[in-house]
# Entry
Amino acid sequence: MYAESLAKMIAELQKLPGIGPKSAQRLGFFLLGSSRQSVAELVDSILQAKDRLKYCSRCFNITDVDPCLICQDASRRSDVICVVAEPKDLVAIERSGVYNGKYHVLGGVISPLDGVEPDSLRIKELLGRLGGNEVKELVLAIAPTTEGEATVIYLNKLLKPLGIKLTKIAYGLPIGADMDYADPATLSQALEGRREV
# Structure
C-alpha cells in the first residue's frame, strides 16, 4: 500500500520503543511533510549523539565528557550514592530537584528470563567505588517491578555486610511503572520517604 521507500521508513520507525504501526505511519508522513533541512538536522543530531556520547567511567551515566558533569560537581555530596538501573532513571531523579549526591547506573536489573544475571550489571564497579570510607549511604532507587525488587534484594544481601547505610526510595511510584514516566512531585516524595533496607 506504500511506496517501497516509505514502507521501509515506517518499518524502521516501528522498531523504536513505544512506536506501533499507526504511530510509525504518522511519524513517517510527518517526516515526508517536513523540509529536507529539518530532516537533515534530525538525522545529524542522531548521528552526533551516536558518535559523541559514551558512558561515564565513574557512574556510567551517558555523557559527552568523562567524568560526567555530575561526577565533576564538587558541590554535590560524595558520601551518598543513588543506585539506579538506567540513565533515564537518573534523569527522572534529577528532575525532582531533591537529590544532591552522586549516582551509579547499573545498566539494567536482574532478569534471568531475559538473560540478565548479576554479573551482567555494573555491580563490581559499584563495589569498587565503596573501597574507602567516604560513602556513608547507598540509596537504591530501582523501580518496584519484580525484576527491580530481585535486584534490590540481591544488592541488600551483597552490601549489608559492608556497614554502609542502605536505603530504598519509598513506594510513591506505581508498581510496574518506569521511573522516567513519574512526575517530579512523586519522585520527590519517594526520595524523601526512603527507608533503610
Notes: The chain has a mean pLDDT of 91. The radius of gyration is 20 Å. The first strand starts at residue 54 and ends at 55.
